[in-house]
Amino acid sequence: MISKQQKPIKSGFGSKTNADEIIKEIDLTGKIAIVTGGYSGIGLETTRALVDKGAKVIIPAKRTHIAAQNLEGIVFKENIVEMDLGNLNSVKKFAEDFKENFSKLDLLINNAGIMACPETRIANNWESQFAVNHIGHFLLTQELMGKMAGNDGARFVSLSSSAHSLTGILWDDIHFQDNAYDKWMAYGQSKTASSLIAIEFHRRMIDKGVSGYSVHPGGIITPLQRHLQKEEMVALGWMDEDGSPSEMAKNFFKTTSQGASTTLWCATSPNLNNTGGVFCEDCDIAKRKGEVDESLQRYFGVADWAIDTDEASKLWEITERMLIS
Asked: Which domains does the chain have, with CATH numbers?
């Protein structure tokens, strides 16, 4: 089933809206937020914007020394806490420490991720993009739901991508154990999962006053592209042969501030107070793929498989089973 709320609400913002415009009228004094990957790319811009409006932001970081350098003057060093999404014990320790030190959680933003990387196996022989982008975040989210429950107005934001349109969940071979590894299909699947987790979270938490949203931040050149060669970016249409941004990139790609805007809109906008369990892009609720011009469907709109409540419930249950296997 697809939510009837999955349709644009004419937010007044757009694809090139900057982060500071989104939060101009917002006061986050006294709010506690967690932003995974909140020290790089759009995560850094998200952290900066939240802090500017009074929130206390906790940054789980695999590379705490890099995080401390990037966040100097933005967050206190003690708010940067070691956590590796690819290590479930590390995720659990972070969550346990947070629960011990804080009485509530207002905003959980699952922003970190890896993209199109060479085949890597971690934990229980899991494919690394699904494991890091989805399973690690799933465990973190599940562990912290209790700190959000009953905290009226708390919100969960999960970062997906236009790559979700490459594939739904590969139910028969999620971890590419029977079929040849394809880094883009693996990434696309993980980003479909990133959307579905928000859909099911919302279903489970809306009665407790908490909402969930998935976000396509837009095309932004960030450290996420570190595994891509120049030739690949040319083939994808992101770059010209001389290494300069392509016409498509100039038209559609965003700055890191613009890339953080949809996350911030979902995390703070009063226009979403009675809305959730939806996929958002360009600072509004996204159209479904069939409502988008055919030539733009690879980059805009949301595929039904990423917002289907039955798929979301199934993925939640299967991920729980993975964690205890």
From this structure: 19-219+258-324 (3.40.50.720)
